[in-house]
Amino acid sequence: MADKENVAPRLTRAAVKRAAVAASLSDVTLQSQNAAKRKRVALSELPTLSSAIVRPSPDLYRTPSKPNLRSSKRQQEPKGAKVLSLDTAASTDPDSQFDDPQICAHYASDIYHYLRSMEIEPQRRPFDNYIETVQSDVTANMRGILVDWLVEVAEEYKLVSDTLYLTVSYIDRFLSFNSLNRQKLQLLGVSSMLIASKYEEISPPHVEDFCYITDNTYTKQEVVKMESDLLNFLKFEMGNPTIKTFLRRFTTAAQEGHKFANMLLEFLGSYLAELSLLDYGCLKFLPSMVAASAVFVARFTMHPKVHPWGKKLQSCTGYKVSELKDCIHAIHDLQVKKKGSCLFAVRDKYRQQRFRYASSMYPPKEIPAQYFDDPE
Fold it and tell me: Any long-range contacts for 81-85 (C-beta under 8 Å, 24+ apart)?
C-alpha cells in the first residue's frame, strides 16, 4: 500500500506535465495555421516610413481653396501669374539635376551665400603680404616647397583633398600672425595636416606617422605641442570654406547638360585649384574666386574655341568674367609653367590614369581678350 501511495503522486505529476506539453504544442500549431492564413504584403504595398525622404508635391504650396485639377500634362498658368513651386525653384539651381538628398538642392543657394559670407570674415582670411610684413626667416619659395611636399604626404596617406586645402589654410593663417623660424616650418606643416586629418578623415594618421614622414626630425612631443599652439590660435574653429568647397558647386554648373566631359572637367578643375595652393600670390584672391577661375581655365583648356563663361556660370558663381581676369591669368600662368615650374608634386599626382592625365593637357599660351568681356 505504501508503494502505491508513493507511486500515485509521481504518475499524477507526469500526467500534468504531458498535458502541459500537449497544450503548448496545440498553441504553436494554432499560431502557425493563423500565420499561414495571413496575406503576404508585397514591397510595393508597404506603407511609407516616417523617416523616408519624400519630395513634397508642388500642389501642397498652392492656395488650398482652389480645386486641385491634376492631369497627365501640367496645366499652363495664366500669363503674368507667379506660382512658386519647388520644381521651379530647383530648376535654377545647378545641384537640382541630382536626386541625391545629400546635395540639398533646395537649400544649396542659401548654403552658398552663407559660405560666401564666411570666407570674407577677417579671422578666416590670411594676410596676402605676411611674408613681407610678419615673417623674417620664411620666404614665399619655402612656403611653396612646403605645400608641394604636403601634397606628397597627402598622397602617401591617401588623404582626401579637403584635408590638404584645410592644411594650407591653417598654415597661412598661423603665419599671418606668428613669426616662425624656418627650422619649424615643416613642423607647422605636419601639425596642420594632423589637425585637418582629425577634422576631415574617417581614419586619420597617427602622430607617429607624421613624425616618421619627417624622418623623425621632430619628436612626438614637439608635434603635439605645435598642434596645441595651432588649435589655440584657431580657437578650436577648424572648419573653414576652402577652394574645394566652392569648386564642387561650380563644376556642376559648368557641365551645361553634359556638353563637357564630367570627370575630366572635374579632375582638370581640381588640378588647377591645387596648383593655386603653391602660389603665394594667390592668397589675395578669395577661395570662391579661385574656384571660379579654375573652372574657367579648365573649360578653356578643353575647348579653346568656345567661350568658357556664360550667364549661367555668372549667376551660379556670382562673378562676372571681368572680375576674375587677374585670378584667371595667375592660374593660367601656373598651368603653362610660367610660375612654379620647379614644384612637381601636383603635376605628378594628376599625371596618373585615375585623374585622366589632367596635368598633361595644356591650353593655348594666350587667352583671347574677348573672353574677358561680360555677356550682355
Answer: 85/58, 85/61
Instruction: Supply the range of the domain harboring residue 296.
Output: 243-372
Q: Return the pLDDT at 137.
A: 95
CA dist., res. 75 & res. 73, Å (int): 6
Q: Does residue 38 belong to any structural domain of this protein?
A: no
Cα gap 345→151, rounded to integer Å: 6
Is the Cβ–Cβ distance between 260 and 254 less than 8 Å? Answer: yes
* Full-model pTM: 0.73
Q: Do 253 and 351 reside in the same domain of the chain?
A: yes
> For residue 90, how far is the Cα from the chain centroid?
20
Asked whether residue 30 is domain-assigned, the answer is no
Neighbours of 186 (CB within 10 A): 18
pLDDT below 50 — which residues of the chain? 1-11, 28, 35-92
In terms of Cβ atoms closer than 10 Å to its own Cβ (0-12, 13-18, 19+), residue 230 is: buried
Out of 234, 253, 277, pick the residue that ends a domain.
234
pLDDT at 127: 96
Q: Give the ranges where 38-160 is alpha helix by DSSP (H).
A: 86-91, 108-119, 130-133, 140-156
Task: Mark whether 202 and 255 lie in a shared domain.
Answer: no
Grid coordinates belonging to 324:
576674375
The tens digit of pLDDT for each residue in 208-241 reads 999 999 999 999 999 999 999 999 999 999 999 9
Write the CATH number for 259: 1.10.472.10
pLDDT at 9: 43
